[in-house]
Every structure is written in structure tokens, then in C-alpha cells.
Amino acid sequence: MDIKVLNRKQLEEILEMPAVIEGVKAVYEAKAEGGTAVWPLVEHHFPELKAVTDVRSGAVMGDVNVHGLKMLNNFPGNAGTEFPVFGGMLMVFDSTNGAPLGIMDASYITCMRTGAAGGISAALFSRKDAKTLMILGAGRQSIYQIGAALLLMPGIKKLVVCDPLSPDGANGYVEALPGNLKTQLNVERPDVEMIAEPDVQKAVGQADTIITITPSRTPVIKKEWVKPGTHFSCIGADMIGKEEIDPEIFRGARVFCDDIDQCCRVGETEIPFKTGVIAKEQIAGEIGQVLNGMIPGRTDDEQITVFDATGLAPLDLVTAKAAVQLAKEKGLGLTAEL
Amino acid sequence: MDIKVLNRKQLEEILEMPAVIEGVKAVYEAKAEGGTAVWPLVEHHFPELKAVTDVRSGAVMGDVNVHGLKMLNNFPGNAGTEFPVFGGMLMVFDSTNGAPLGIMDASYITCMRTGAAGGISAALFSRKDAKTLMILGAGRQSIYQIGAALLLMPGIKKLVVCDPLSPDGANGYVEALPGNLKTQLNVERPDVEMIAEPDVQKAVGQADTIITITPSRTPVIKKEWVKPGTHFSCIGADMIGKEEIDPEIFRGARVFCDDIDQCCRVGETEIPFKTGVIAKEQIAGEIGQVLNGMIPGRTDDEQITVFDATGLAPLDLVTAKAAVQLAKEKGLGLTAEL
After folding, report:
1. Tens of pLDDT along A303-329?
2. Above 0.85 for ipTM, yes or no?
3. Min Cα separation B310/chain A (Å)
4. How far is B102 from chain A (nearest CA, A)?
5. How confident is the model at residue A168 (pLDDT cuts 50, 70, 90)?
6. What are phi and psi of B130, to 5 degrees?
7. What is the DSSP string of A148-204?
8. Residue A164 scores a pLDDT above 90
9. Chain A residues 145-164 with a CB less than 8 Å from chain B
10. Most-buried pick from A80, B105, B194, B201 (CB within 10 A)?
């Protein structure tokens, strides 16, 4: 059996955001109809190193028909060394016969499918006339959020980037952004004014759509700053204790999840759920149900909407399968006989 | 970062049983001192295909200092196709920095470390004067059990192989055995008489040491057949419902496990434990405690001893790390830049 072994550089060449977006949408829709499986998360901490490793596994049934997993390693002590702080590997198998299809670097797959999740949800739940997109967080994950959102939201004319960790830092980020969007994601939006905003409150006050992509453990955005009709795509919180926005924003908002149970356990919804601000029954539903037309998304222009994404192994697997197919077509990557 | 990608054929060239035995012993000893971690097992069934996939992950601390996992696929419908019924892949990471070390076929690693477990336990718990070794099961796993036991037990002069699924089948197996032991495992024991025995009762009655390595779900060996002083290494049962020997054999026996909790959940100990034949407190301990000298093994020559092995991810990881090192030294396997 020949399988593909793909490193990050090859995946950067192979994967394109529009294809990843299609795969992520297909998985969300399949999930709404019971066509995906998410298996129990395994998480382990290395206390002395402040490091954490986790294993996310699952399956996509139907035409995709794959199962597999990724093991991610977050070793903050690697900063400044030759080893990445955030790395890991993914393996994907054909569920018709259990044969391996490919092994690959997991970090780029994760970045791309997470960007796609942010972009799809922002386009789906924002007001139709949304013009201003705010991104909270100017770390390495942000560009994938921005790229996917700008691909899917032609109505956006202004992008405001806030870096709560270093308010001035977003200046350099925004300056390099048009070039990076072009070279890394093939996204060109000269019609969009891009600014860095050191004052988070000021940024929130003008935003129609807010994507949060920070590792924050205390709320950065207060409820009283938010104007009616704002949509939040909360992407950063994916572990117990992480939160980016005021739990009070959930009160009265129309809330969607990628997976309701997982979001109540480890997502942005965790704290509002555990403190009783929102009950599970008050969550409108999962994004796949909206994409499928099973439930409505935003129901009026004044409503606050929140989408909480915690990440699903099936998103990685569908993206990995696409990468293997594209690698074969393009003759890229290493082929190993296994 | 360069990592090794190793397929089964390369692993067959690279790994040698004595080195695997050393690694398995070291892991058992480390476990007794808290130097290993076994993370929660993930298991998924594909009911339509009668297939099952599982993920076993964990870590070995100390000098070995690795973590990782294997995903095993058991697809019985593959019989007679180009795809293996039993396959899977393993990934191992350096726990000092989370960097990947290697990716490899998991089936051969599993065979070798399982053989080592059987051999180590048989040598450790059998009477010092044990002369007759019985192997229950003549499937693809048996040769690794036989090879490791014959390496570690020079006193064995007779080997009796029983195949409960096809009593005659063991004839051909035994005929080819000396040659296969030599070519596959570099084990030569011309001093050992090797016979196939169609009558399980007759085989049990003459055995000093019995290794069971079948996928049985009903007991094959009855208590009344067993002579005093017999040792059992029960290797086959590693999932809920599997059992190879009469639960009554556990009554009054001195019982050891590779991992007490896991054996009570999914091992040969499962049924005796769940039916109250043996309580957890009546289990003597784990094999690593005996290897370490923390508790005694067999305490008299008339005693029945039982060792139950369910398999531990750390055994795979230590073997995988050794394979990567040997592959580098021997210049074998594919090198991938990840």
C-alpha cells in the first residue's frame, strides 16, 4: 500500500482555502444528519514543561468515509528553539478497509480548517449588510480567519485588527496583511480598508462581525461595548477555562455551536453554561443544522448571534483526505510503501 | 525535522527479539515506579463491517521519555483481499520537546512486544524446573510467543502446540516452526522436541507452562485438566468478552497483571473479576513489581500462577523508539522531512 507523507511546506502548496471551505461545510452538514463521529478526546499535561498533548479522533461517513486522528503537541518551552511550539501529526484511514491513506503535519491542516470554520460562520450568521469585520487576536492563526471571511463576505469593506496582548503589535501585522493574504492564501481584497485598533472597546463599537482567535482565559470583550446586530464567531476557546467574551453576551443571544456538548464542556459556551447564564436548551442548534436548512440562523437584524467552535476531528480528516488526493494529482509529497 | 517512516518489512529487518525483550522489561519496571502513563483507550466499532478500530496512547518517562499512540484497524472483511485484516500505524514523539521521531506500521511492533511479554512472564513465573511449554493458538501471533519463550527458557525441552480452531492445523504449523523461528526471529533450539497436539486436555496435562494466544470468547482450558505448579501467560484476551481459560483457574491461583485495572476491565481477569471468583485485592500485583523485586513472584512449586497481559501503549512506544534508533544506525527506512 502506498501512502502519502506530507509536511507543512507541501501542505501549504497543496491546500487552497476554497476547497477547505467546501470540505468543512460538507462535514458540518453531514454531522447534522449523523454522518460524522467524534470519539473521546484524550488530553495529557506535562506539568514540568507546561506542555500539553491531545489526541482528537473520529470519522466521516458517507462518500468521504474516512477515520483517523491527530496528535497535537503544545510545548511553549520550544519558543526560540528549532522545534515548533505548536506541532503534531495526523493519520487518516479509508473506512471501507482500514487501509492508511496518509500521514501529515497536523498544524497547517488545523489552521486551514479552523479558518474555514470562522469564515463560514461569519458569513452565515452576520447581518446581510455587515460591512465591518473585527478580528480579536493577531497571532499565527488570525490570517486563516481573515482569509476565509474575506473570501466569503464580499460586503465587508473594513477590517479592524486588535491584539489584546500587545495593542501596538497589530500595526505591523496589518501593514503586512495584504501581502501575506495574497502569498499565503491567494486572497486579494483591495476594496477593504485594513486598520489596527489599539482600543478594543472602540473596535467592538464599530464591528458588525467579530471573530475571536486568542488563547485568553479572561473575557476581553465586554457586553456594554457591543452594538445590536453584532455577530461573534468565537474560535479561540477550545479547552476548559479559556474564554474571550463576557459571558453576559450569551444572555438573550441566538447561540450556535459546532458541537453543543463539546462547546458546553470546553468552548466559549463553557463558562456561560456552567454559571447558568445559558442552558443547553437555549442554544439554538449546531451550524450544520443551519447550513442544511433544518433550523433558521439569524432571525432579525438587531439580534446578537454567537457561534462557538471547538474544533472537530472530522474537519481535520476531510481536509486531510482532500490533501492526499491533491498531492497525488499534483505529484507532491513523499510516497511511502506501508 | 527528519523523521523515520518504517513499513512492516523494514521493521522485520530492524527489530530483534532480545532488544525488544529488554525494552519491554524496562517499561514494566518503570511502570511499577510510576514512570509510564497509559491514557484512555478509544475504541470504535463499524457494525456493518464487523470491524473495529482502537487508539492506544501513553508515555514512557525517564530516560526513554517518549509519548505517542497507535491506531489499530481490525477489518475481518479484508480476508482474501490485498488489504490486511489486522493493520495500523504508530507515531512516537520525543517528550522533551514534542518533536515527532517516527511513524511506522503498528502490526509488527505489536507482535514483537506481545511476544516479549509472553516470554518474559513465562520465564519469570514458571517453576524453575519447567520442561514442557504449551502454546494454545497457532495463528500469526504464536511464533513471537514461542520465540521469546524459547530465548528466555533454556530449560524447556518440549513444545506442544494446540490449535483449538483446527486441531489438525497445528501439524503443518509445527513442521514449519524450526525454519520459521530461525528465519523470522533468529531463534534456534534443536534441543526442543516440537509437537502438535490435537487433544487440548492431553496437552494441558503435561504442560509446566501454558501461553494462550487465541481470540477465544469461551474458555478452552478446563480447571480439572491443569496439574499443580502450572503457569499460565494469558495473552489473547484484550477486549471485553474475550476469555481463554476456565475462570475457576483463578480461584486460589497467584495472579499477576500487566496493568491491574485494565486486566479487570478487558483481560483474561475480566470474567473472574466480574463474576466474583477473584477480587482486585486478591491479585498479587503487576509484573513490573516482581521484576523490580518489590513483591515475590511464584512462592511455591505446587502453586498455579497466572499472568494476564492486555497490552500497554508504553510497550509499543519503547519498541518504536528502539526501531527508529536502529533504523538510523542501519540506514534503513524512509526519511521524511516533517
Report:
1. 999 999 999 999 999 999 999 999 999
2. yes
3. 20
4. 10
5. confident
6. -55, 130
7. HHHHH-TT--EEEEE-TT-TTTHHHHHHHHHHHHHHHH----TTSEEEE-S-HHHHH
8. no
9. none
10. B105
Q: A132 in contact with B at a CB cutoff of 8 Å?
A: no
Crossing angle for the helix pair B107-125 and B313-330, nearest 10 degrees? 110
pLDDT at A167 over 80: no
Measure the CA–CA gap between B105 and B73, rounded to whole angstroms.
11
Q: Are A107 and A310 in contact (CB under 8 A)?
A: no
pLDDT of residue A338: 84
Question: Which among A8, A57, A100 has CB closest to B55?
Answer: A57
pLDDT digits (tens, 9 = 90+) for A78-115: 999 999 998 999 999 999 999 999 999 999 999 999 99
Q: What is the CATH number of the domain that holds A319?
A: 3.30.1780.10
How many domains is chain A built from? 2
Distant-in-sequence, close-in-space partners of A149: CB < 8 Å, separation ≥ 6: A118, A119, A122, A123, A133, A156, A209, A211
* CB-CB neighbours of B183 under 10 Å: 9
Domain of B217, in residue numbers: 126-311
The band of A237, judged by pLDDT with boundaries at 50, 70 and 90, is confident
Print burial letters for A50-73: b (CB count within 10 Å at least 16), e (below 16): ebbbbbbbbbbbeebebbbbbbbb
pLDDT beneath 50, residues of chain B:
none
What pTM was estimated for this model as a whole?
0.89
Domain identity same for B249 and B131 = yes
Taking the Cβ of residue B1 and every Cβ of chain A, the question of whether any pair is shorter than 8 Å is answered with yes
Measured between beta carbons, the chain A residues lying within 8 angstroms of B62 are none
Same domain? For B101 and B231 the reply is no
Most B CBs within 10 A among A69, A70, A108, hence the mutation to make, goes to A69
B155's grid cell: 530449560
Q: Provide the chain B residues 18-47 that lie in CB contact (below 8 A) with chain A.
A: 37, 39-40, 42, 44, 46
Say which residue the cell 471468583 belongs to.
Answer: B277
Residues 87-126 of B with CB under 8 A from A: 87-89, 91, 93, 95-100, 103, 105
Please tell me which of the candidates A55, A78, A89 has its beta carbon nearest to residue B103: A89
The sign of the dihedral angle between the CA atoms of B145, B146, B151, B156 is: positive
Beta-bridge partner residues of A94 = A66
A152 pLDDT band (50/70/90 cuts)? Answer: very high
Q: Which of B41, B69, B105 to mutate to test the interface with A (most CBs of A within 10 A)?
A: B69
Residues A196, A249, single domain; the answer is yes
Residues B242 and B159 in one domain: yes
pLDDT at res. B164: 85
**What is residue A223's predicted lDDT score, i.e. its pLDDT?**
97
Selecting from A67, A78, A98 the residue whose C-beta is nearest the C-beta of B87 gives A98
Residue B338, pLDDT score: 84
pLDDT over 90 at A241, yes or no:
no
Of the candidates B104, B42, B27, B214, the residue with the CA atom closest to the CA atom of residue A337: B104
3-class SS shares of chain A: helix, strand, coil, % to 5? 40, 25, 35
Whether residues A42 and B42 touch (CB distance < 8 A) is answered with: yes
B39 in any annotated domain: yes
Q: What pLDDT is recorded for position B192?
A: 98
What per-residue confidence (pLDDT) applies to A248?
97
Task: Clarify whether residues B288 and B163 are in a common domain.
Answer: yes
* B91, B57: one domain: yes
B87 contacts on A by Cβ (under 8 Å): 98-100
Same domain, B222 and B325: no
B220: phi then psi, degrees, rounded to nearest 5 = -100, -30
Q: Cβ(A134)–Cβ(A211) under 8 Å? A: yes
